[in-house]
Amino acid sequence: MTSNTLYIEDVDIGDEVPELVTSVSMDQVTAFFASYPRSNNSPATPSRFNSDEQAKQEGLDGPIIPGVMSMALVTKVLTDWGTGAKFKLLDAIFRQVIPQGEPIRAYAVITDKDEDNNTIELDVYIEPLEGQPYVRGRASMELTSRGN
Amino acid sequence: MGIEPTIDYDRSVLGIEVPGEPITIDREKVLAYAGAIGETNPLFIDDEAAMQAGYKSLMAPPSYINALILSSGRPDPKVNFGTLSFHSGQAIETYLPIYPEDVISTTSSLEEVYAKTGRSGTMVFIVWKTQLFNQDGNLIATARESFVRR
User: Fold this and answer.
1) Are A98 and A135 in contact (CB under 8 A)?
2) Residue B124: HSE in the Cβ half-sphere, 13 Å Cα cutoff
3) Which of chain A's residues have a Cβ under 8 Å away from the Cβ of B120?
């Protein structure tokens, strides 16, 4: 993550939050679910997230990334942006399933700024490197003010 | 707009706030979650950095509330439609940090179940709202999720 402090006075509508380009493997998805509070180390039931065969039985091309993990990736883009930026809200729609192992791009663009309350609104996206978004939504963050 | 079909489900669940099983936040699980999403923000992985920033210790990444919601359990409305269910969207709003050793309680309620017919046929949407509280009774986050069945 960047170590710079983000000040509300230094950002403007239209600014883009640094993107995250990544791909998510089945091992990462497995580790993600294993980190849940009540998970145990027993083998997971085959699902569209951990089984190519099960995913195909459900009409998918292959295993996919869970929606909650795409929420985590978008949130990480926002919280990695800089110090002093507090996450407030993320409201996202999962428009298409996200295949595992394919490059994806997560980013956000500032759409509104309220200097009285030190908050910004953003549009957020997860997209393939080419094509229509997998995830679209909006977010709200609170930044630090130089005046405080 | 056509008339949407009546949906067969357990209406006794609708609008009822159902408590989930309280969960004590485990530091190792939080760090494992942070690792699984490639988290590098020191507030979520480094006690000292978090304390220097004014927090009492490292805290869970904001999206960790999903791990708590899915782990706390909620009733099955037994929606009798379709064979496949997908998570179609979610809104999360956070108010207070979640720290290791916090005890988080949830209440979930089924907000609505409705059908929508489009070019690809009829789909049924199931919408849940969950509130999360810490051991002091403070509201720390809310989440509204929708699932689609087809």
Assistant:
1) yes
2) 19
3) none
Amino acid in position B72: S
This prediction's pTM:
0.92
Question: Which of B32, B39, B90 comes nearest A71 by C-beta?
Answer: B90
This model of the complex carries an ipTM of 0.92
Residue A107: phi, psi to the nearest 5?
A: -155, 175
Among A23, A43, A22, smallest CA distance to A33 is for A43
DSSP code string of B111-135: EEEEEEEETTEEEEEEEEEEEEE-T
What are the angstrom distances between the C-alpha of B51 and each of B56, B57, B94, B105?
Answer: 5, 5, 20, 25
Residues B36-91 pLDDT 10s: 999 989 999 999 999 999 999 999 999 999 999 987 778 889 999 998 899 999 99
Which residues from B are below 8 Å from A79, CB to CB? 41, 43-44, 61-62
Q: What is the pLDDT of residues A66-110, one digit of tens each?
A: 999 999 999 999 999 988 889 999 999 999 999 999 999 999 999
